[in-house]
Amino acid sequence: MTETAPIIRFEGVSKHYDSFQVLKGIDFAVARGERVVVCGPSGSGKSTLIRCINGLETIGGGTLTVDGIPVTEKTLPKVRARVGMVFQQFNLFPHLTVLDNLTLGPIRARGMPRARAREAAMRYLERVRIAEQADKFPRQLSGGQQQRVAIARSLCMEPEIMLFDEPTSALDPEMISEVLDVMTGLAQTGMTMVVVTHEMGFARKVADRMVFMDHGEIVETAPPEDFFTAPRSQRCRDFLDKILNH
């Protein structure tokens, strides 16, 4: 990590859906260049937590800053220029080719000349090992290939932070490793990453820090070695027992 100032900071963040409190006083920071894996049972608030970072969910209380910018409705364009996100579903435009899916954002949002956008798109498609599919449409690709396209599309916007919300959960088992390999390669470039996943082998290999959530709270944070070998809370032990032995 090159800097000590956090690039993401939650301070006392809460969030309700009607009367249900999904985030309860979250205090949490991510350092620049840090790779954090967030895990926990379904409904624990993991996806809501990372969707708050790029303003897909609005916080109900507390403060959240990204690269020193408070995340509010007014600042969303600035925040989203710094944050890329990859979802469970690939969210590609079905009527556009792979290449056009990648160049649309840089051309429209950043005013990048078409030739330069195409050059960058091909560079990122090569990085995710799928350059030969540039002229195909999403429906002609496997799920794993589509998710790799979605990662490349986010990278085309040159974000400082990448968020991943269970990026392999919609994939067949044989396609999971190809997406995790791409994410591992991305982690090695020093990109700040916050990943919600149940892929504990990936977490062990890539994460600088594990965050365990349950019932809208951060129950435990630890380096992977400590997290997997000596979890401190019973809730975390139960979760790991369930996920690692099934």
TrEMBL record:
Keyword Cell membrane attributed: yes
Record key words, sorted: Amino-acid transport, ATP-binding, Cell membrane, Membrane, Nucleotide-binding, Transport
Lineage: Bacteria, Pseudomonadati, Pseudomonadota, Alphaproteobacteria, Rhodobacterales
GO cellular component: plasma membrane
SMART domains from the UniProt entry: AAA
PANTHER family: AMINO ACID IMPORT ATP-BINDING PROTEIN (PTHR43166), GLUTAMATE_ASPARTATE IMPORT ATP-BINDING PROTEIN GLTL (PTHR43166:SF9)
Record-given protein name: ABC transporter ATP-binding protein
Stored SUPFAM superfamilies: P-loop containing nucleoside triphosphate hydrolases
Domain spans labelled ABC transporter: 8-240
Tree of life domain: Bacteria
Main location: membrane
Family classification: Belongs to the ABC transporter superfamily.
A Pfam family that the UniProt record links to this protein: ABC_tran
Cell compartments where the protein resides: Cell membrane
Topology relative to the membrane: Peripheral membrane protein
Molecular function via GO: ABC-type amino acid transporter activity; ATP binding; ATP hydrolysis activity
